[in-house]
Design a protein that fits this description.
By secondary structure, this protein is α+β, with helices and mostly antiparallel strands. It has two helices and two strands, in the order αββα.
């Protein structure tokens, strides 16, 4: 039981580390958040930004990475 908990904590820590790196480096990735298909609406005091295409690309990359590591 302790072995499984340890593995789960290491996995959760890796996910948190990866998310932290993404937040640190997100501004330095060119075009992320400004791709065709990302929705940005400004009307008066209302501002809506929904990075649809960027989210799909990041999701696909993460899916590929996780499937690669799952096979190993």
């Amino acid at each position: 039981m302790e072995k499984e908990l340890g593995k789960s904590l290491i996995f959760a820590g890796g996910i948190l580390l990866a998310l932290g790196l993404v937040f640190l480096l997100a501004g330095k990735i060119p075009y992320l958040g400004r791709l065709p298909g990302d929705i940005h609406i400004q009307r008066g005091n209302f501002n809506l930004f929904f990075p649809l295409t960027s989210s799909l690309i990041v999701s696909a990359l993460l899916s590929l990475l996780l499937s690669y590591f799952k096979r190993r």
